[in-house]
């Protein structure tokens, strides 16, 4: 599940991750539409393959979140959807035929945080607090290329401080087993230290070092940035 205000690059990041265009038919909302805008739930299924293993994922998007003039109850539709999926799975598990059960529960929520503020907004705290006991929440700072490295470090520290003050539980990477190889242990350590992730998405192909890759191209000293790299997509 991906949640966050409009304009934070949620669709772009999802398309970057899965090398597809899941939202080609979606039309942008006008100012008039946003006056009484409500949160809707959209699901898309994608298949990915990693080291020969095929995995079918359901991407749940929440257009309309945080877009209305009054966002007091904008999280209710999302909470109801999550609860309904748990209820449906429980009913299937309690039935006689449990061989082909479809698991549509929400296992992870990427929550997009604006890079333009000085930390979390009230809507951010309210949403994460209402969902943290139901879904693994992974906070991400959207459009990280609008910030310098020092600004990213400062914003991350501020967000983690506010999350702790609000008693919000976010996803924590598990400890590695003693028999894990050193590369995996180091990668797991880097991921733990990177929370909340700072992310960049792009749907544009550029040529970098002779290879055609998805990335962003900047003028001047910024040069080119490859988004399909672990070091630049998530930091």
Task: Indicate the percent of residues in helices.
Answer: 25-40%
Indicate the overall shape. Answer: globular
Rg, please? Answer: 19 Å
Average pLDDT level:
81
Number of strands: 9
Q: Strand order within the widest sheet?
A: 1-4-5-6
* Order of helical and strand elements: EHHEEHEHEHHEEEEH
Structural class by SSE content: alpha/beta
Distance between the ends: 20 Å
Count of runs of 4 or more consecutive helical residues: 7
| β-strand amount | 15-25%
Describe the sheet with the most strands.
Answer: 4 strands, parallel
Stretches with pLDDT under 50, minimum 5 residues: 228-233
What's the structural blueprint in terms of helices and strands?
Elements: E1 2-3, H1 10-18, H2 31-35, E2 42-50, E3 53-61, H3 76-93, E4 108-113, H4 122-131, E5 136-141, H5 149-165, H6 182-194, E6 197-198, E7 205-208, E8 211-217, E9 224-226, H7 230-233
Parallel strand pairs: 1-4, 4-5, 5-6
Antiparallel strand pairs: 2-3, 7-8, 8-9
Keywords:
single chain; 235 residues; alpha/beta; 4-stranded parallel sheet; 3-stranded antiparallel sheet; 32% helix; 20% strand; disordered C terminus
What does this protein structure show overall?
It is built from 7 helices and 9 strands, in the order βααββαβαβααββββα. The chain has 235 residues and is of the alpha/beta class. A 4-stranded parallel beta sheet has the order 1-4-5-6. A hairpin with a 6-residue loop joins strand 8 (211-217) and strand 9 (224-226). It is globular. The model is unreliable at 228-233 (pLDDT under 50).
């Amino acid at each position: 599940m991906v949640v966050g205000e409009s304009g934070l690059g949620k669709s772009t990041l999802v398309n970057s991750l899965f090398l597809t265009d899941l939202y080609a038919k979606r039309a942008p909302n006008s100012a008039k539409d946003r006056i009484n805008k409500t949160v809707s739930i959209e699901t898309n299924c994608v298949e990915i393959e990693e080291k020969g293993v095929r995995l079918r994922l359901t991407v749940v998007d929440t257009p309309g979140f945080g877009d209305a003039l009054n966002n007091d109850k904008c999280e209710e539709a999302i909470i109801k959807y999550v609860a309904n999926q748990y209820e449906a799975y429980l009913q299937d598990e309690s039935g006689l035929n449990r061989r082909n059960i479809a698991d549509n529960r929400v296992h992870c929520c990427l929550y997009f945080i604006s890079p333009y503020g000085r930390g979390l907004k009230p809507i951010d705290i309210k949403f994460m607090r209402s969902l943290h006991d139901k879904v693994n929440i992974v906070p991400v700072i959207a459009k990280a290329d609008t910030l310098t490295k020092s600004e990213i470090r400062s914003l991350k520290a501020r967000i983690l401080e506010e999350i702790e003050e609000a008693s919000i539980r976010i996803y924590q990477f598990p400890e590695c087993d003693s028999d894990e190889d050193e590369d995996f242990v180091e990668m797991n350590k880097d991921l733990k230290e990177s929370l909340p992730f700072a992310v960049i998405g792009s749907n544009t192909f550029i040529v970098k070092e002779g290879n055609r890759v998805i990335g962003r191209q900047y003028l001047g000293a910024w040069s080119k940035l490859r988004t399909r790299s672990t070091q630049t997509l998530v930091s």
